[in-house]
Amino acid sequence: MTTSALAPRRLLPRRLPGASQELVLLAAILLIVAVVGWINPRFVSPNNLTTIFSGNAYVAVAAIGMALVIICGHIDVSVGALIGVLATISGILVTKGFPVWMAWLVPVLVGGAWNAGLGAVIAYLKVPSIIATLAVLSILRGGLITATGGAWISGLPPDYQLAQFRLLGLPSPVWFMVIMTAVAAFLLRNTGFGRAIYAVGGNREAAEAEGISCNRTIVGVFAIHGMIAGVAAVLFATQLQVIQSTVPNGLELLVITAAVVGGVSILGGIGTVTGAALAAILFSAIGSSLIFLNVSAYWLRAVQGVLILATVLADMARRGRAG
Amino acid sequence: MRSLLALFVGTSLLATPALAQTPWTGGDDLPATPLACDATVKTVAPGPYNGGAPTGAPNRAGKPLRVVDIPKLVGVGYFASTASGIQQAAKETGSMTVTTDGPTKANIDEQVTFIDNYITSGVDGILFAANDPVAIAPVLKRALKAGINVVGYDADAEPDARQWFVNEAEPNGVAKALIDQLASEIGATGSFAIVTSTFTTPNQARWITEMGAYAAKCHPKLKFLETVEAQEDNILSFNQAQTLINKYGDGLKGIVGMTSVATPAASEAVQQNKLCGKMAVVGLALPNAMKPYINGGCIKSTVLWSTVDLGYAAGLALRAVADGTLKPGATSFKAGRLGELSIINQSQILLGAPKVFTKADINDFDF
């Protein structure tokens, strides 16, 4: 691909400061585990570490898709609503007697198809993604409440509870998080499409000049993002024995925050999916440590806000846009 | 990274002094009025009647009534069960025909339109559960002006826009039901933690304050550990309950769920940790959400009000105002099989103690 020459140059500034965002996040997680574990050894019990890793796993999964969208130069504020809708679709299918595999697969396909359409509107009709996805957020949120009347879905069969399955002692959401992040990171780095995502987000004109179809890349990214949101929705729906068929409040912000704090530049063209997963784990670790340290959970929001600001400022400084 | 550490330690220090102030975090600062430890109901004077009155209503005593019931929305289990209670009242009095009709989503504009149409078509009585107490008031006042009897239930309107309101539960009643149930499940000296929405959510904060006051009075040896926030988010509620279990281990005997989201989520955490029978979950929740845990025997109970009784009392109250037997100034109301209900807050009929749903009867309810 002709983009191979372009992408590494774009990636270069991220590595300059010596420590990448991933290493900073990893260090922060280890530091929290060490300090809080030292204060209260129960914090580092296998059970609690499992809770920390699995607590935000579905957020980390959704953040993979969000990272792709942001790297590609766009944003999607409707992902929380989409996850709510897809989770409800999954729950309705299984309670109506459709086979479990269908209840798992259909949300992934519907999410992919829906977001491909959304991506097409953004790419071909040139609607700014923040506007288009804000509109979709309202449509999905309103539509969901109208369709379900806010009623919850209960009576889910036990073999449907994908998120409760364990492998080698770890809950399945952790496996989904790790494997999907690894696969996405590999594909992003080693395929033409992956490099095209960086190119389109970094410099659209240059990407076009290199022969990349920006519009097709954007539609593809949104479609993949939708499918990943479908996986996140299934993990969300199958964790408890009842599906709250409303949109989880502020989920889209949590997903975007994980991607941004994970080192994805909000300006596009830079970032990895690994950082997003680490950021999601960091939030979970902070949330858990607040309980262990008897600190009000309000600080979680504040800490997240500070982390966003710090990351964005650091990103701008790296790009030489801050004085 | 250094800034992160500083921030982290700093926030811990900042928040520590606040912990010492109130024994039960998450409550509000308003005074509490704990109920008696036993089941005796202390009668408090309801105060002067502040409900409205229909103008020029014909004498309806003993005459057949055409009544319309307009809940927040139709097609959900909750209001289907209040409607069935209203039908029970209609059947028992033998002289009311009640139609339940309303918007398919909880929308105040549509609800107003429904009420307007029924005023025009001419009914004797209107039962309602308001989507918005202020926005529904004008149309209900029009109904009163047209001589229609108006009684609310579940969600009130401004008092002068209706005659009576059947109140499903007062905060001190909810507190008593939860704490009595908790003490019966974890023992008089058991330790517990609370999972709430946020520390500033008005209903939950009120209940927590009332719970603290009632526990101090009637179950003084119960050991309160802490309150954690979980918004109204089921995954976060699950994670918070899970973290409490990790933090306290055997030192935690019970979790109190303050929201209909937190209670099933905490139950799920207890079940996944294989702590059924060792750790209790007590809380407010819809029966349907708790059926998997209660039918499976992991959790013993869930606390709410009986929606059937709520509709039944509302139906009887409407018959009684039309008959003129429930008048301003009343201090109690005879509600058929429910017995004598207290009048509170000037023009409200209190349904009584909340209902504790158990394995024995939870499957009789579908909401």
Automatic annotation (TrEMBL), chain B:
It is found in: Periplasm. The keyword Transcription does not apply. The keyword Lipid metabolism does not apply. Pfam families: Peripla_BP_4. Residues 1-20 form the signal peptide. Residues 70-324 form the Periplasmic binding protein domain. Keywords: Signal. Belongs to the bacterial solute-binding protein 2 family. This is Sugar ABC transporter substrate-binding protein. It comes from Methylobacterium indicum.
